[in-house]
Structure prediction request, 340 residues.
Amino acid sequence: MLPGTKMRAVEATDFSIDALALTERPVPEVRRGEILLKISAASLNYRDFAILAQKYMPKLKLPYVPASDCCGEVIEIGEGVTRFKEGDRVIPVYTQGWHDGKPTPQQRTGRTLGAPLSGVLQEYIAVPEEDAVHPPTNLSDVEAATLPIAALTAWSALQEGGVKSGDVVLVQGTGGVALFAMQFAKLAGASVIVVSSSDEKLARVKRMGADVGINYRAHPEWDVAVKEATGGRGVDIVVETAGSTLPKSLAAVTFGGFIGVIGFVGGGQAEISVRSVIGPMIRVQGIAVGSRTRFEAMNRAIAAHQLKPAVDSTFDLDHVADAFRRLEHGQHFGKIGIKI
Prediction:
């Protein structure tokens, strides 16, 4: 790419959906060890809305380019690049620099795409070759763009929980993480209970393979319903996406069970009884997406089982505000894609 070449990009000039605007930015220059991607598709996560609503990273410098998850084609490689070649389809890793094991605090706070690093709602992005993966060959670009946060978070939660055949897994809602967790749990031979506020969405997840659906509006004490559905035993693994519902998840999990806390869509505060953790020996762990090595393992599983993500809807780049509003109102079932 010639220096100074311009590309289309979405910028947030303030912390508001109404402040999103399509503008022009310079195409990034490719340095040694980097690849330049022409982005074809992106997807939205709750994190993207939380940042835009100033609920997360409230001191982020403006303007910024939102969103972290994308898929594209390598159109230029920097000096020394060996992992990819021009023409390859590639997905950047959300936490840049996290290749295996645990991330460093600096990687967690300062090396994530979509804030504080520049986001992916733009036509091109340059990333180190070590911080990208090949997508599963059975997925379209939009489908592949749903993987970096939602799929890998779900995969990590189940891996950390030690999911196995015969387990019962509880997932909350029908967003991207929840549906991926359901799909991955079924691949492992587990049964899945889904809680949601919509009977229509519960019917859809049952068609996708969920074993039990519980409407938490009809059953506010849904933890009791979960216990009843498991014969009083409780579930082995909870994928906690709401955050504020942690007390109910503790009541719904079995003795020695696992709760992977991955989100805060229902609120960032939860008051729990310490005895509810100690007595039944519950393991509660924060899940922060996953490493590149785990991403690659997940992609191999997706390709081997021909798994397909649930894509709710797809918007063009110049209608990205409508996509954020759909996310804000919780109208989606699965992931919201952006064509670029």
